[in-house]
Design a protein that fits this description.
ABC transporter involved in vitamin B12 uptake, BtuC, 15 helices
């Protein structure tokens, strides 16, 4: 009887095999979504173009290709950067509501670019890109410095509070400048709502090195984030130098968010929503969450841009508005179902 029961018992499922199967399905899904997003971005806009026209020499599609291709690449770059930095920030601060704006990076970049236009008279995107990047970096350093005061140093909770305070202060300064300088407001207003249109290959090449270094630093810190999730005391017991680890990953986040914001303006909800969607699909291991967040963030940003091109013809709604329109219902959906994945 015992032998029969033993023989008839189903073998235990291999959790590693099940995990690999789940990961494979998610990767296939991501590849399909990215393909749809890229094709839609190339074909859909104020003028619909067939795939054959895109490559036909001398056709209207050829000119559209030269315009939409850099826009598509920038959308992929910026979306990946924002989602990747959002996932890292949620791990560093152990706060599920963290996103790239949490530490005042978006606010710092915006204020620096407003000063570049208002004080120095800079009107070239290539030129004030550097101001935006520097502003994000200065804001991050300021937040960390403020959070370091008092006992315990820059704890996750103090970083959140310091980031909110710095962001509020810098935003008020930006508003004051724009209200008193109409010329600067006219230059910066489209950028302020987040847009990936009107960018060329020169902008892609300017931002790519910073985004590449930031991606290497953050993706390389995936296992470190898994260790930090156990708590700083246990992480130190396992031999991690938590201060240095946080600084390295934080530098990667600054590079990603600062460059993305300088390129396209503040684009919200990508860094907040995408990591939670990924955790629901593959769990909370950062070795999976980080690369998949980058991929789904790129796809979400590009699809939001495509929808913004056609939802209100002949005008376009900027991608920063569309990500909020898409992001809020998705966020509420996950909250109502209690599926905000734990960290």
């Amino acid at each position: 009887m015992t032998l029969t029961t033993t023989l008839n018992r189903a073998p235990a499922a291999d959790p590693r095999g099940r995990g690999r199967s789940s990961m494979l399905r998610v990767v296939i899904l991501l590849a399909g979504v990215l393909l749809v997003a890229v094709v839609a971005s190339m074909l859909i806009g104020a003028k619909l173009v067939s795939p054959l026209d895109l490559w036909r020499e001398g056709s209207v599609g050829q000119g559209i290709l030269e315009t939409r291709m850099p826009r598509t690449v920038i959308g992929l770059m910026v979306g990946a950067a924002l989602a990747l930095s959002g996932a890292c920030l949620q791990g560093l601060t152990r706060n599920p509501l963290a996103d790239p704006g949490l530490l005042g990076l978006n606010s710092g970049a915006t204020f620096a670019m407003v000063l570049a236009v208002s004080v120095f008279g800079i009107g070239s995107l290539n030129a004030y890109l550097w101001f935006g990047f520097a502003g994000a970096a200065v804001a991050a350093v300021l937040v960390h410095t403020v959070a370091s005061f008092g006992t315990g140093g820059a704890t996750p909770a103090k970083l959140v509070l310091a980031g909110a305070a710095v962001a509020a202060g810098v935003t008020s300064w930006t508003t004051a400048v724009l209200l008193t300088d109409k010329a600067t407001f006219d230059v910066i207003r489209l950028w302020q709502v987040g847009t990936i249109g009107g960018r060329g290959w020169d902008i892609v090449l300017t931002g790519l090195p910073f985004l590449a270094v930031g991606a290497l630093l953050t993706l390389g810190g995936a296992r470190t984030l898994d260790t930090l999730a156990l708590g700083d005391d246990l992480a130190r017991g396992l031999g991690r130098r938590t201060g240095i680890d946080r600084a390295v990953i934080g530098l990667g986040v600054v590079l990603l968010t600062g460059t993305a914001t300088a390129l396209c303006g503040p684009i919200g909800f990508v860094g907040l929503i995408v990591p939670h969607m990924v955790r629901v699909m593959v769990g909370s291991a950062y070795t999976r969450v980080l690369p998949l967040s980058a991929g789904f963030g790129a796809a979400l940003t590009l699809l939001a841009d495509v929808v913004g091109r056609v939802i209100w013809p002949p005008s376009e709604i900027q991608v920063g508005v569309m990500t909020a329109v898409v992001g809020v219902p998705v966020f509420v959906f996950f909250l109502r179902r209690g599926r905000m994945a734990g960290l």
